[in-house]
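Tutorial sheet, problem 5. The two components below are modelled jointly, 746 residues in total.
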Amino acid sequence: MRTPLSKEKEAWRTEIREFLAAELPRRDAFNPEFDDASEQWEKAIEFSRKVSAKGWIGLTWPTQYGGGGREPIDNQILLEEFAAADAPMINSVGIFLAAGTILVGGTEEQKAELLPAISGMHTLWAEGLTEPEAGSDLGSLQTRAVRDGADWVITGQKAYTSWGPMSDVLYVAARTSPEESTRDAVSIFVVDLKSAGVTLHPMRNYGGGVQSSTYLDKVRVPAKALIGDEGKGWQYIMQAFYASGTVEPIYAMQEARLRDLLAHCRTQAGALDDSHVRADIARLAAMIQSQRLLAYEILGNNDAGRRQPYGGAVQQVVAKEFEPLFAQVYDRVLGPTSQLTAESAFAPLNGKPEAWYRQSFANHAGGTAQLKRMVLATRGLGLPR
Amino acid sequence: MNLNWGEDHSVLVEVAKSVFPKYSPLVDRANSVSYADQLAQFRDLDWLQLGDATGLSSECAALGSIAGIFVEMGYALVDTPLLDLTIARDVAMVLATDASTKLAESIGSGAASVIPVLGREDWGSQLNLENGILRGTALAVAYAENADSFLVEAVEGSETVVAIVDAGSGSTVAAMPNIGRYPLFAVTFEDAPVTADSILARGASADAALEVATQRAAVLRAAQVHGAGKRLLDITVRYAQERNQFGGPIGRFQAVQYLCTDMTINVHLTSAYVRAAANAIDNRAPSQPHLALMCKQAAETAREMVHSAHEVHAGMGYMVESNVHLFTNAAKRWQYDFGTDATNDALVTSAVEHIYAGAGL
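Model answer (structure tokens):
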């Protein structure tokens, strides 16, 4: 149900599909929550370097910083096709959060040094934003950075650090001015993960991947590790998420799953004649289309310089609430075999639905649906908190 | 209608409370007890011969009371073969032939480990008996690798047959790895001989015995979901009270309160449905629509309770170090033990239609 874009954009989509067909055999399709095994990681790195060589990482960044200088819609199409193909999107923290921050607030030197290293796949970033006691509440960050001569000394704990052991540097949000209001007290640093005082403790997640608890014990970093201005971290983080002008295309991944589901149903006599199954499929199609329409609305608004006061909260609530629903509907259509893992000879679709079900509970990243509803209510509708 | 648990309920519950926590994964993930040890424990507790599916003996524990054991089993999130052995014994008791009575006694004494292999329409599996030869693959048979023999539901021509088949006699057992790491197996019978002696029943009597056992099993499984739901609710509410964000506990937000209250409503409703269904069965007045409503509610609770728990726990619930995923795995399996929503809806709709047509239940 995708509305065709211009011929030029459709040609771009075709180019991406051809690249994926050539460079990403289905057996190498990869889901970042799962495949942290070293063998999969090597494949992901190799694939990502090919993407980088095409100039497709940082597609919307200015060309002088190693970017492609293209429109956000081009990047959205790229992300859609990669999501649909389960292509490895490693270094998403670097490409979106870190690069967004650097583009918004970084110095010219930082832009010139750090951005090409990301688009060239030379520096991999891990996220050091979330904390155990703060979660989505950035105002409660406890990690502190204290100026000591020319250096900063950082102490604190970060939670759910994705890709920690595989990364080079950590994106750290730290409180630099306890007396100021939260909005003026947070600064962003880039910290070498090999620095003295940095330790990572692995935490397995339900999806099968590994995240880390990251401890920063008096980690000394040079002054240039501060991204942009001191105390502007809050604003940078808020703006970083808009910097690429794109929306995470969960709907594209879901559409690929719906396609697989329909293909499976066609092999089951009478499955598509069942009114319950038809109703479920219609629900899935509607939820995918809802997300797509909302995503493209945001894309258009970003392009036109319009920004809704509640950001993308509507799209995010829909995406977050639909993700687990998608898994439930998928289960209902497939029935009890959906609980079988890939090791079972009786598992439909090679056991993927069992894995998708587990992954569907990872819809909290960036804030839960409840939090996004609160944003919508308070910032969007002006309701009291 | 009296919706209280049976009189001997509290005694059984107290014992169950002392048994299951000892090997609950919520206490220690490494906890496990072998099948043989579980069987021995249940035998020593006389739990293998609880209840009277024929409804004739007033000395046996009522189903409503036995359900208390399963509530505690769910509360500790422990898996055991007790339900499977109970189903086999229930079928054998209801058939009440010399052979089946002997079989029920041997299950009840712990002498024989008899695992039911029932037709599972939702799994698309059916066994066929023809000229004394059993063929086909039965899916999702729990604890099949521990069976001395199988109590098999098969189709011969157009009628149902219940037979006892020795494990290993023309059968192979293959593991079915699943999300809950539950011991599920595919049991394949290839030209397995079934003698006249081993057929316990056929036709209407076989159907009736299977129906009684299936209804009782649904009540006990729903009781287990209720118990697990109670525990998950406890864990979730405590988390909502202790987890601070935005200047206070997250439990002060209505969005979080609604998630917790939705869990409470579903868990409480499951308990009410279990007690009502158990009560009806104990009073020899079970009704399929009422049981279908219980099954629908229990399946809904299994789905919804983990969804709400994950939403409240957010990132922490997604970590394996939290216990939420253990409930998620169990619930995913349980929700399929109650038949499909479509089947349950059809049963209820048909009954309602009947009532409004003036025919009564």
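Marking note: The two ends of chain A are 39 Å apart (CA to CA). Full credit if you identified this.
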